[in-house]
Amino acid sequence: MVLLLALTGCGTEPPANPEAPPDSTAPLAVPSSAPDPAAQAAALVAQLADEDLVGQVLMPYAYGASATDVSAGSKSGNQGLAGVDTPAQMVEKYRLGGLILVGFSADDPTGKNQPTTNVDNPAQVRALTEGLQTAHAKLPAGAAPMLIGTDQEYGVVTRIRSGVSVLPGAMAFGAAGDVGVTEKAWSVAGGELAAMGVNVDFAPVADVLGGPGGLVIGSRSYGDDPKAVAEQVAAAVRGLRAGGVAAALKHFPGHGHTTTDSHEALPVLGQDRKALDAGDLPPFKAGIEAGAQLVMSGHLDVRAIDPGVPATFSKKVLTDLLRGDLKFEGVVVSDALNMEPAMAWPAGEAAVRALNAGNDLLLMPPDLPAAHAGMLAALKDGSLSRERLTEAATRVLTLRFTLARDEAPPMSTVGAPSGVEPLTDVGRRSITLLRGTCDGKAVTGPVTVTVASGRTDSKKNLEEALRKAGLEVVASGGSTTVHLVGYGDGAAELSAGAQVTVSMDLPYLLASSRSPMLLATYSNAPAQLTALADVLAGKAKPQGSSPVEVAGLPRTTC
User: Fold this and answer.
1) Whether the Cβ atoms of residue 137 and residue 9 lie closer than 8 Å to each other
2) Is there a catalytic annotation at residue 263?
3) Which pLDDT does position 113 carry in this prediction?
4) What is the tens place of the pLDDT at every residue in 33-56?
5) How far is 59 from 294, CA to CA, in rounded Å?
6) Region Disordered: what ranges (predicted)?
7) Which of 255, 257, 263, 299 is catalytic?
8) Judging by DSSP bridges, how do beta strands 147-150 and 200-201 pair with one another?
9) Active site residue: 335, 360, 489, 534, which one?
10) Who contacts 453 (Cβ-Cβ below 8 Å, separation ≥6)?
11) Alpha-carbon span 555 to 558, nearest angstrom
């Protein structure tokens, strides 16, 4: 990111670590002889004081939609989290190497551990990220732009929703089954994130679903077939990287066979090692081979490897399996440390444990001052070796210097018409008919759209798309009723009298519907509902195949 590097300065000749004074904040010079990002990182790490080394491996969240100008409520939140008023002050005080932007909606299953929202629209996000980079450029490690990440998975976990090209959830790509379309769509997403100053996307989800019990991950997964999921994950990684963003595979070594939400408790992976190798690890292997630069460790009890120990804190999982067996050389980032399984220890102890297990970047510590101080104290008493901290900081800085080589696209690319084509393609290819006849016009006469509670936007978007497709839409009493269900809905939200029932999330619920026509879009993204309207109007044939097995129904009737 050339713009961001231009903000940095050469500074004065620094003292070498560990003699550098703790209050030194001038940017340090990176020798011009450093030929590549790894060498640049090593040269910089050798000059950093302990406080700066610790800062490189921390990636908290902050309150406020601006780096420097925040509301009274955001000031209070930042004071409680880190003893500062603004995100910029947080970066400066703790010498941070990264920060995560958060935001959630009512449908977001990951919103439980995110008490704030600091994303709104592309212009605001760009101004926020520029402010963060300006603050960071003044620090000793300012020669490398900081990591700014977010969870832009699309589908139910979509942080930035306004003004961007909205991809459908992962399962829609699985239903389309076209890796070329997947890669192209994710390259659009990556370019837009890079234009806004976001250089890390905590996506794609590499979890393979283990059947109807896998509701925790749900449509965030590409499906239940390890080989097909692996192909989709690799395509998403390639797309993001082509757009200028680092992809982070999650949740290692696989959250899809669990029935417990790791935000609330520690899920158990009961598979034996053979099943883990065959059913969970293939997408992670494929994503690593495709160039994923980060892997996120999950708060998961992997009984076949290290029973009783969350993978985030397990050296057997992160060092022996991920580094050793899978040969991953990039950055291992913890899942959020403010989630329940990681709160079993005080913040400082949890940070040290996570680093010692093999994480290089610690996401969302619940108490930033305690995490920072805990690592410094552990350095002094030997419970955290300087070698391990230096290794982690070097990996993080290598990634940052690597990303700095990409020039950010202009803001005009965000939400541009050029991004519409791949979204249209995945919509057209993913709509799946699980019950009903495949040929001819699906709907005749006036149409009434009904929804489960709280889905008024989806109803409005589908009605508009149906009108554009040439169908008459009436508020009630239509000869055909199309009923929409989505994330979190159950059998009680089905409509007994609907001629057509459409699932905008996991298709498992369709097994309980009596409607003569059952369709799945896997997402309520606008392009998916437009494609659905074309199918209902007989202008397009449903081409998708369900990427998960639904009891009593075929993967497609077409």
Assistant:
1) yes
2) yes
3) 63
4) 557 999 999 999 999 999 999 999
5) 13
6) 11-35
7) 263
8) parallel
9) 335
10) 493
11) 9
